[in-house]
Amino acid sequence: MTYKHILVGLDGSKKADKAFETACALASALSASLSAVWIVNRDRGMDSTFGVSEDFYQDRIGQVKQKLGPYVEKAKKQHIDITAETLLGNVKMLLAKEYPEAHGIDLIVVGDTGLNSIERLVVGSHTSYVIRNASCDVLVVK
Predict the structure, then answer these.
(1) Is the pTM of this model over 0.70?
(2) I want to staple 100 with a disulfide (CB 3.0 to 4.6 A). Which of 18, 27, 105, 138 is the partner?
(3) Cα 69 to Cα 138: distance, rounded to the nearest angstrom
(4) Of 141, 138, 33, which is closest to residue 92 (Cα–Cα)?
(5) What are the backbone dihedrals phi and psi of residue 42, each rounded to the nearest 5 degrees, phi first?
(6) 5-141 has which fold?
(7) Domain ranges in the chain?
(8) Integer Cα distance of 130 and 39 in angstroms
(9) Please, which residues have CB within 8 angstroms of residue 48's CB and are 6 or more apart in sequence?
(10) pLDDT tens profile 14-58
């Protein structure tokens, strides 16, 4: 199987950085394009319970967009065709289903855990969801 379009999920964790390195190596070796997404999780329950404002999300999106720059530069130095996006929504749904189906992704690369300390105890809940629900292959990087 040859992969043409690889998706890597980023969140600022060391595991996500390692997943990015793996995704770049694969994209380079396979001459595949790479999409890097950093999803700002929007939890409607948190919004209503704690009064999280739209300004909070917009500020967070702005912060994350700046963090994507070094990833793009690193991939371009390796002559990788990369697209980087910051998205707002449900991390699990966007990473497993919505983004891959909308962009013709045939491989998703994720770290085994994220920034959440509880997720570090076992395979992260987002990663578990992606493994179970993605319609394409998933590579989990430890």
Answers:
(1) yes
(2) 105
(3) 25
(4) 138
(5) -110, 115
(6) Rossmann fold (3.40.50)
(7) 5-141
(8) 14
(9) none
(10) 999 999 999 999 999 999 999 999 999 876 655 555 667 778 888
